[in-house]
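Try this one yourself first.
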């Protein structure tokens, strides 16, 4: 399961992808996906810092994708927003073999999750209904 922050980010990116190559106002994204506007502004700032969206200021300005929807995978979005992987569960003693095994399993599960997400692009999500 993806964190709500990632889900909302992907939903916002899908709206931007649907508007490409035009810019779209943040309020229009919020309305389209029923995302609280204040929360969306924070997400858009994170997406801009992650170089997933661009901002055009002034009249007619707004947000747009920084990459084509056909090239932007969910795995890339997760990595850019959350880093290379989810944190492993907290460990016990350093010499505890079961804790080390649990960490290995956690890291493998994270790799499998990201590999799966790397196979899905924003365009795939948009075309799912077709």
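Now uncover the answer:
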């Amino acid at each position: 399961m993806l964190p709500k922050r990632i889900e909302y980010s992907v939903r916002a990116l899908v709206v931007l992808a649907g508007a490409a190559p035009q810019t779209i106002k943040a309020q229009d994204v919020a309305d389209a996906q029923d995302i609280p506007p204040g929360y969306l502004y924070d997400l858009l700032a994170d997406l801009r810092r992650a170089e997933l969206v661009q901002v055009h200021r002034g009249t007619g300005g707004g947000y747009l994708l920084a990459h084509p929807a056909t090239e932007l995978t969910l795995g890339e979005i997760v990595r850019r927003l959350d880093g290379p992987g989810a944190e492993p569960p907290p460990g016990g003693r350093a010499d505890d073999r079961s804790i080390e095994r649990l960490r290995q399993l956690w890291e493998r599960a994270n790799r499998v999750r990201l590999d799966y997400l790397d196979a899905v692009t924003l365009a795939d999500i948009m075309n799912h209904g077709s």
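Discussion: The first strand starts at residue 53 and ends at 56. Residues 97-118 form the longest helix (22 residues).
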